[in-house]
Design brief:
754 residues, alpha+beta, Kinesin, ten-stranded mixed beta sheet, three-stranded antiparallel beta sheet, 17 helices, 17 strands
């Protein structure tokens, strides 16, 4: 029957799963019929039920052959049905295994998706936490700034009240104070006018150079005012020293007067004792005289009776007259002792009056010393405020140009034709002109030092900037220029010559001297030093005691010093040696040690050419226990390697590799300055180790000063022009406003240098 139904073309659906699940979908694997006798025969539920319920009909009960044939036919169909079920079961098993594998893959994929989602959720939570912390720190910073603003207003009010009190108490200083207030008012008016002009010029960046040239006159006057303030401060310090000397002299006089007074009191006591003894002797003499007079009277009465005793009477009279003379002498001595006693009383009274006058003078001197010290502290605060205001007005990156003198053997005849200096009052000390191919190139900087300028004069111009490091600011000073232009001489000076010391030794001397003088105001400072060089784009630790770590044959340090910048703009170099220093002598020893380890070489342009960038870092941490204030400053002093042309230096071999690395890093520095000048969104600090190390100084909140060093000989005109153009571009850059790193210490806090 099944065969007949299949052959007759009846279309039937596939046999469903016995447990009542869905039929096989068209996507299921086809039923394998290879090697099967049933071929393409399919069975449905109705076919199976019909096959099982089929009753074989026989024509004759006794026709066993027919019955056997029918039975064989029925068994054959049952076998076909069973084989079809077996094949269908195999297909279902294969499909079930496939579905299990797919389920495992889906579960694994779901687990991976859950893990990635969890990881992303954690990252988002971390980002949210960082943003919350940044928001909280911003709120704290805003609160601190508001508190500082209120404190500044309160201090201003107190300063005005103190100034009025000083005017009432010290009539002699009224004129000087009025002059100082007038100068301060004029300086504030000028600064206010400069501020207004500066705000207007921010909208017109193209005229920034012209505005700076006009503004420099007022800034020079402000500098003069600050210098006069420094002179007054020096005079006040000298007056304090003189007053202290007078005070010590008066104390010595007071001690001497006390000693003399003690001597006078002793003499007075002796005189009083002597007068008392003389009075006793005088009384005894008077008693004897009375006795003798009485005896004389009795004798005279008896003499009248007895004239025989005249000789005895004469002797008694002689004795009485001698005793009268002794009494007169004793009386004279008593009068002289009384006079001496009165004179000693007068001297003692005069000494007491003189002692009181000296005591009052000492009290007045003490009050004057206290007022002078208070005025000195207020002047120091005013100096810091004016200095920071002038730096903000000038721009955070200032540029000083220094022209070195001609060396023996260089052509001196072309100096006047190559380099000249404007004589106008507006550009005096700030302008420089360079002639190249009969064309004049003019530049204006914050300061231009002539070839005859001494190291001391150069340092005076930057001394206030160095002082900012002790006040809690980050300060960076670096020297730029071609090789042989005097950068290392400017920064390090000439070893063994005190008058030709460079900026780095002089800065350290000033910091240690100021640190000592600020102890009287309650400040305590801790200093840490590190020195490194960048040689062929590799950082070397110049203070390392391991010589192999400092320098190897191939110029690669075995220690990898990674550069990292934290959220506060501080720079950290991994595995860099940082040493605590207590005196300038220790730092000088470390500088000599670093100079011996630094890479130098000989070229055709310089006998001792620096082949690396030298970076000196001084970390300063100060605490004032009386005001509970803490400051953290950083002073970076950098001697860059000089740019050079291969045609002039004649470098080969290792010198050639060094020259290529130096020029590449300086080119990266130029790209950074160019991006900052255009205010690009992306500044390529990571293009070199030098620019990445200087990132907080060039793009952060640091006070930065660049020295551009120029060689005066005519053969270096091209390199000098490139250096001056680069310096002008640096001078036009605007970076973040300098921020003082200060906070209030907690009771359990201690000094730490991070």
């Amino acid at each position: 029957m099944v065969g007949t139904m299949a052959n007759n073309g009846r279309i039937r659906s596939a046999f469903p799963v016995a447990n009542g699940s869905k039929d096989l979908t068209p996507d299921s694997a086809p039923v394998s019929t290879a090697g099967s006798e049933c071929g393409q025969v399919e069975f449905t539920r109705e076919d199976v039920e019909a096959l099982l319920n089929e009753r074989i009909k026989y024509k004759s009960k006794f026709n066993y052959k027919e019955r056997c044939e029918n039975m064989m036919e029925y068994i054959k169909r049952l076998r076909l049905c069973i084989r079809w079920f077996q094949e269908l079961e195999l297909d279902y098993a294969f499909e079930q295994e496939k579905l299990k594998n797919a389920l495992v893959l889906n579960e694994k994929h779901c687990a991976d998706m859950e893990a990635s989602l969890k990881h992303k959720e954690e990252e988002l939570n971390m980002i949210i936490e960082v943003l919350r912390k940044n928001f909280e720190s911003a709120q704290i910073q805003l609160a601190k700034e508001q508190t500082e603003k209120l404190a500044a207003n309160d201090s201003l009010v107190k300063e005005k009240e103190a100034r009025h009190a000083v005017e009432k108490a010290q009539s002699g200083l009224t004129e000087e104070l009025g002059k100082a207030q007038g100068e301060l008012q004029t300086a504030n008016q000028r600064i206010q006018s400069v501020n207004d002009m500066y705000k207007l010029l921010q909208e017109y960046n193209s005229s920034l150079q012209l505005y700076n040239s006009k503004l420099q006159g007022d800034l020079d006057e402000a500098h003069e005012t600050m210098k006069r303030g420094e002179k007054e401060r020096t005079e006040i310090v000298e007056n304090i020293g003189n007053l202290k000397g007078q005070f010590s002299a008066l104390q010595d006089q007071l001690a001497a007067s006390k000693a003399s007074q003690d001597d006078i009191m002793k003499q007075k006591a002796e005189l009083v004792n002597e007068v008392a003894s003389l009075k006793v002797e005088l009384q005894q003499a008077k008693d004897e005289r009375d006795y003798h007079l009485t005896e004389l009277k009795t004798l005279q009465t008896e003499a009248n009776k007895y004239n025989d005793f005249k000789d005895t009477i004469t002797e008694l009279e002689t004795t009485c007259s001698s005793q009268s003379n002794q009494i007169q002498e004793l009386q004279d001595r008593l009068v002289s002792c009384d006079r001496r006693l009165q004179m000693s009383d007068l001297t003692t009274f005069e000494k007491m009056n003189e002692f009181e006058d000296q005591k009052q003078t000492i009290i007045d001197l003490k009050s004057r010393v206290e007022e002078a010290e208070l005025k000195l502290v207020e002047g120091e605060k005013l100096r810091k405020k004016l200095h920071n205001t002038i730096l903000e007005l000038k721009g955070n990156i200032r540029v000083f140009c220094r022209v070195r003198p001609l060396l023996p053997g260089e052509n001196n005849g072309d100096e006047g034709k190559t380099i000249s200096y404007p004589a106008s009052l507006e550009l005096l000390g700030r302008g420089i002109d360079l002639m190249q191919n009969a064309q004049k190139h003019s530049f204006t900087f914050d300061k231009v030092f002539l070839p005859n300028t001494t190291q001391e004069d150069v340092f005076i111009e930057i001394s206030q900037l160095v002082q900012s490091a002790l006040d809690g600011y980050k300060v960076c000073i670096f020297a730029y220029g071609q090789t042989g232009s005097g950068k290392t001489y400017t920064m390090m000076g000439k070893p063994g010559n005190a008058e030709e010391k460079g900026l780095i030794p002089r800065c350290l001397e000033q910091i240690f001297e100021t640190r000592q003088s600020l102890r009287s105001q309650g400040w305590k400072y801790e200093l840490q030093v590190s020195m490194l060089e960048i040689y062929n784009e590799t950082i070397r630790d110049l203070l390392s005691t391991n010589k192999e770590a400092v320098r190897t044959d191939n110029g690669v340090s075995p220690q990898k010093h990674a550069i990292k910048h934290d959220a506060h703009g501080n720079t950290h170099v991994a595995e860099l040696t940082i040493l605590d220093v207590k005196s300038s002598r220790e730092v000088s020893f470390l500088l000599d040690h670093a100079a011996r380890n630094r890479s130098v070489g000989k070229t055709q342009m310089n006998e001792q050419s620096s082949r690396s960038h030298f970076v000196f870092t001084l970390r300063i941490s100060g605490v004032n226990e009386s005001t509970e204030q803490q400051v953290q400053g950083v002073l970076n002093l950098i001697d860059l390697a000089g740019s050079e042309r291969l045609s002039k230096s004649g470098s080969t071999g290792d010198r050639l590799k060094e020259t290529q690395a130096i020029n590449k890093s300086l080119s990266s520095l130029g790209d950074v300055i160019f991006a900052l000048a255009k205010k690009d969104d992306h500044v390529p600090f990571r293009n070199s180790k030098l620019t990445y190390l200087l990132q907080p100084c060039l793009g952060g909140d640091s006070k930065t000063l660049m020295f551009v060093n120029i060689a005066p000989e005519s053969s270096s005109t091209g390199e000098s022009l490139c250096s001056l153009r680069f310096a002008a571009r640096v001078n036009a850059c605007e970076i973040g406003t300098p921020r003082r790193q200060t906070n209030i210490i907690k009771p359990l806090d201690r000094l730490s240098l991070g």
